[in-house]
Structure formats: structure tokens, C-alpha cells
Specification:
5-stranded antiparallel β-sheet; alpha+beta
Length: 107
Amino acid sequence: YLADLGMAESGAQAVEAVRQAVLRQLDAAYGQWLAEGFEGLRAEYERHAALTGRTVAVEDRDGGTLAEGIVLGTDAQGRLLVQGPRAEAPTAVASGEAHVRYQLSSS
């Protein structure tokens, strides 16, 4: 499989090459985060965010509801933005567990 990624190394050398590549990317992202905060990484994060556009319920660890609605994305601090059905402004959620609410169509 590593050969499919264009890696000439094999075995332990390939694992080390992957480890080094991951650490280089992590180091660059961490440096950017230190310099700019989450806002500097936000666009890249948003490109991979699986919850954007999904209907969710966000709960605290005791099962209490923090927010329900459609995920709009994240704010500059990295909080999940959830637009509720009646809320004028989205709710910014800093922590919790988001559960995707599947809606079955009637067709």
C-alpha cells in the first residue's frame, strides 16, 4: 500500500518515512496555530468537516442538550456553530458530543 503512495521505501523504512512526513505536517500546523490561533487553520479544517450541513444534537457529558439544529461550520475559536430552528443567531458550542440526526424521507 505504501508503494501506491509513491514510497520507494519498504518495511521499517517506509513506516519511518510516513512518521517523518506526518510530523513535518503537524509541526507546520502547530506553528501556524501558535501564530494565528484556530482562525489560521479554519479554512483547511472546514474543507474536511463532516458535520457541516448536517442536522445534529450536541450533548454535554451528562446527556443534556447544548444545541440542536444544522451545523453551519466553526467560528474563529473552533467552536461548532449550530443553527437551531428558532434561533436568530447560531449557537457556538465549545465542547460536547455531536450526534447526527438522520431524517428519513417519506418517499
